[in-house]
Amino acid sequence: MMLLPNLPQNTALLDLLREQSVPQERGGYADEGWELHTHPDLVERLEDLAPRWPVLASFGVPVLAANGIAAVVAVGTGVLLVRLPEAPPEPLEPAEPCPPLTDPGQGWYAVCPWQNELSSAESKRLLSLLVQHALTYAASQSAVDSIDWQEKPGTQSGKSQGRRPSKRTTRRSRGRRGRRR
Predict the structure, then answer these.
(1) Which of 133, 125, 97 lies closest to 112, judged by CA?
(2) Rounded mean pLDDT, 147-160
(3) Which of 3, 90, 95, 133 could lock 110 by a disulfide, CB 3.0 to 4.6 Å apart?
(4) pLDDT number for residue 176
(5) Secondary structure string (H, E, C) spanning the chain
(6) How far is CA 170 from CA 166, 177, 178, 180, 181, in A?
(7) Cα 179 to chain center, whole Å?
(8) How confident is the model at residue 52 (pLDDT cuts 50, 70, 90)?
(9) Mean pLDDT over residues 56-79, rounded?
(10) Residue 56: closest CA among 151, 169, 158, 181
(11) What value does the mean pLDDT take over residues 116-124?
(12) Pairing of strands 56-58, 34-35
């Protein structure tokens, strides 16, 4: 796992995780030198909800981030913290709050990662959409637009830079090559 960058947008989260962290060098419940504070099933669920995104390590807690800004955090056995501009939609069951991060005005919301009231497929669909929304929102909070989701400098999320237009010709243009009008 890569480490979550120490950016101003991550300060409140990193401070909270640092306070709760326990150093641990070895063992089945260690992650990057810290005691794992997330059940392995929840880590797997997080990876399942955003399969193309790398999971970052932060004091024994898995995090999804966009442009280095934390967007989703998996905690304990049943809490997903999502960074959003507004509360998650009504059908999604909230989870136990995680103060001070989930205090009003902080931009973090606690959601149950299992959504027992919904079918498995609907739960995964809605949570995947929520995670993607959180990642998009986190990316918009970045002052730097030049880091893609894999933390590679020089690209802009999905935009190609410095490419020349294709020199391929279409059928129509091939037939006209060499003709003068």
Answers:
(1) 97
(2) 38
(3) 95
(4) 38
(5) CEECCCCHHHHHHHHHHHHHCCECCCCCCEECCEECCECHHHHHHHHHHCCCCCCEEECCEEEEEECCEEEEEEEECCEEEEECCCCCCCCCCECCCCCCCCCCCCCEEEECCCCCCCCHHHHHHHHHHHHHHHHHHHHHCCCCCCECCCCCECCECCECCCCCCCCCCCHHHHHHCCCCC
(6) 11, 11, 15, 18, 19
(7) 54
(8) very high
(9) 91
(10) 151
(11) 95
(12) unpaired
Contact 161, 155 (CB under 8 A): yes
| Largest pairwise CA distance in the chain | 78
Q: Is the pLDDT of residue 144 over 60?
A: no
Q: pLDDT (tens digit, 9 = 90+) per residue, 68-111?
A: 999 999 998 999 999 999 999 989 999 999 999 999 999 999 99
d(CA 56, CA 3): 5
Six token digits for residue 109: 């919301």
79 Cβ contact list (under 8 Å, min separation 6): 95, 96, 98, 110, 111, 112, 113
